[in-house]
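Aim 2 progress update. The chain analyzed this quarter is reproduced below.
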Amino acid sequence: MLGTDYILDALATEDIDHLFMVPGGLVDPFLPALGRQSFVRPIVAAQEGGAAYMADGYARASGKFGAALCIGGPGLGNTVTPIAAAATDGSPVLLLSGEVSTDTEGMGLFQDASNQTLDDVEVMKPLTRYSSSVDNPRNLGHLFRHALLEMKQQPQRPVHLSLPRDAQVGELDTKHRKIDPSIVHSSLLSLAEAEASLPHLTGAATGIPPVRIVLLVGAGMEHAEGAALLRSFAEAWDLPVATTLRAKGLFPEDHPLSLGVFGYAGTHHSRMALTDQAPDLLIILGSGLNERDTMHWSLEIKPANTLIVNLSATVIGEHTSGFGIVSDCAAYVGWLMDQSSRLAPSLESTRFARRQWLAGILSTPRLQDPEHAQSDAEPIHPARIITDLRSVFPRDGILLVDSGAHRAFAGHYWTSYEPRTYISATNLGPMGWAVPAAVGVQCAVPRRRVAVITGDGCMHMHGIEVATAARYQLPILFVVINNAALGNVWLRAHLEGPVPDELTTLPNIDWAAFGVSLGCRGETVRHPEELAGAFTRALENAGPTVIDVKADKHCQTPVADFSTACAAWSYHE
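Predicted structure tokens:
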């Protein structure tokens, strides 16, 4: 078979049913190849960056990996930020870029970006776990497989493979064999470290059984597909659970043991349980422990009362000089479940006291300024937008949240009930990511409703991809919180004088009309009582809808706890 047919057949073998792409001369051989098969559906994006964001969204929603195809050089250059965002969030994306034939490299062909010129492979190396070029058509099979193996190993990362034209049209006499999940996700567990952690749970380490035990859960538990185990373990011993913003929804936020999000845009409940008074035992599962996950490093991580479980020894070593468990989070929690008879004497004896302590926390307000969720103000308060969308959105629907002030409002006021239903690029945070990523999400889970919370600043960057949703009639609801400003930046800048104010103010664009011009249904909302009806009509639409909500740019984001921690923190302490 031809190289292009091999790649498409390999994607199908790996159960990847969508390829996000932008056609161009350097990938022309893929066009007829896509017509020779029926499993992999091509989705043509407006721009290569959009295609890569779509692949990222597909990966996050499906639990598989996403695939994107573009030309090298200018096309690959457009994917740099999307691949960087995927890398920082541990999202597996396979980026394929076309290149001139190997026998013409460096001869001055149009758009040559081989290692004789721009060298696309080197461009992608800092952003991916593996970046290489197929130097000989006969090497395509094993290099493609190597790329997938590198991408799939934990923690997952994007990979890049440059495909010279001769590799695309060359003949191969082999077929791809599906990669066994046990090879790349073997549920690694250090039994010695796991055993050594038990005294922390039983109280043997201090002589006093821990009462106030809190689980802080990050994206590593999602990557390990450990949501069910997490819930079973928490319920077995009445252990409260807080998540990072990246892991929001991994534990149901309406569960009686939920503390909500800790850190940026987090809840008062999580702050009270984790930092107001240090818990007797803090178990951190799969968090990278970055600034936002740790409430600007205000979270006390002491060897005597903290267990850190992570596949990365670096993460553990950077945050504690004491004990850590280099393991797959789900494997460790599963092992703890198997130790119930050993844990029971201490955890059962402290259960009543733990329930009382948790009840005291949950009896206080969970959210900052909860009255904003019912605000009748005009322009509309962002908290009201989030709340009214949640009230009509399906419980298992998937929300994507972009970067900006709206990220804080959504993280704080939105309630998530299931894993992979709250999706956001939380680490690098590129503006406009959610618009194309939603296309990938909807392709991955076509029977679920998908909505996007974005801002007008984000729409300036990647709003054109609503045209892709319209082209394929994907029923995505795009909610533009339109405050005619670069919200978070404006909140800071306008205090510095008229020039900073002007530089962070945007034209009040009619985004509903923009959506209509690209084939979407559009609606503008200016009054809060109109929100629920507009959202309901959008959910009844068979295609995409862009709702332009005129919002108030003066609203302070719900990050008071985080801001207090920032003000109190010193690098020298």
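The mean pLDDT is 95. The chain has three domains: 3-184, 191-362, 370-557. These observations will guide the mutagenesis experiments scheduled for the next reporting period.
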